[in-house]
UniProtKB/TrEMBL annotation:
Residues annotated as binding Mg(2+): D9, D11, D179
Cofactor(s) demanded: Mg(2+)
Keyword NADP carried by entry: no
Binding residues for substrate: D20, D95
Superkingdom in the source lineage: Eukaryota
Family annotation (Gene3D superfamilies): HAD superfamily/HAD-like
UniProt entry tagged with the keyword Magnesium: yes
Active site: D9 (nucleophile), D11 (proton donor)
The name this protein goes by in its record: Phosphatase
Length: 273
């Protein structure tokens, strides 16, 4: 089943909450975060928060320990492993950061299930401080999409993935899973034959509900990890059964269509009265 690409958002999709909020809250910096939020973009604020936490004596180990406790529904990891084992190409497109995501995926033992993680760079500097940077350097230039935050347009990431697979001559079906308003732009890039799995009653689902006709993909909503797992694996099964049926169709087996089909009943001649 080489034909399916599953693109996951991370926060509130793979894990059950927002990793940025989780780290800030668990390390006791919520008030400062809320105070500074109106003054700068979210992504820049996360870098600032990491500096503040470092100054307060919080270490990388403290952050890692918090990330390892991030809540995740018990059905999600098995679903990711199953989708990977079935041959799907799994990718992440997230507005969190590489350090948080890799730490959590390593801890869950599923890092190697993903062929690609598209997110804001995050690394530990020589002073042991976590630095977080925008994936798109908006100080230099705007990405030009007014649906998305300045540091990341997930729609542009989707277009790059679609274009690179296209240039390899691979016809793929996409399944996109997400919850947030940042997942709306990439949802608009999905085509007919693709699938969109928005989390029910979350901002992406609200945006789609306002005007479902702009979405070309088939929509399958989910509420929690149990539904995510069941619906995702069902979709993968359905798509691969359809793919196999196509592979076995007369056109693809070199059998002339007229031989493979039952003889058509002759049409009654049109009689003019
Ligand atoms: Mg999310
Ligand atoms: Zn966008």
């Amino acid at each position: 089943m080489a034909g399916i690409v599953v693109v996951f958002d991370f926060d509130k999709t793979i894990i059950d909450l927002d990793s940025d909020n989780w780290v800030v809250d668990e390390l006791g910096a919520t008030d400062l975060f809320n105070q500074l939020l109106p003054t700068m973009p979210w992504n820049s604020l996360m870098d600032r928060m990491m500096t503040e936490l470092h100054a307060q004596g919080k270490t990388i180990d403290d952050i890692v320990e918090v990330l390892k406790r991030a809540p995740i529904h018990p059905d999600v990891v098995p679903a990711i492993r199953a989708a990977h084992a079935l041959g799907c190409d799994l990718r992440i497109v997230s507005d969190a950061n590489m350090f948080f995501i890799e730490t959590i995926l390593d801890h869950l033992g599923i890092r190697e299930c993903f062929s690609e993680i598209n997110t804001n760079p995050g690394y530990v500097d020589e002073e042991g401080r976590l630095r977080i940077f925008p994936i798109h350097d908006f100080q230099k230039s705007s990405h030009g999409c007014n649906l998305c935050p300045p540091n990341m347009c997930k729609g542009l990431v989707m277009e790059r993935i679609q274009a690179s697979l296209m240039s390899e001559g691979k016809k793929k079906k996409f399944i996109y899973l997400g919850d947030g308003s940042g997942d709306y732009c990439p949802s608009l890039k999905l085509g007919e034959g693709d699938f969109l799995m928005p989390r029910k009653n979350f901002p992406l689902w609200d945006l789609i509900s306002q005007n479902p006709l702009v979405i070309k993909a088939e929509i399958h909503e989910w509420s929690d990890g149990e539904e995510l797992a069941r619906i995702l694996l069902n979709l993968i099964k359905t798509i691969s059964m359809a793919e196999n049926a196509q592979l076995l169709s007369p056109q693809n087996m070199g059998v002339p269509v007229y031989e493979a089909l039952p003889s058509p009943t002759p049409k009654p001649a049109m009689v003019a009265n």
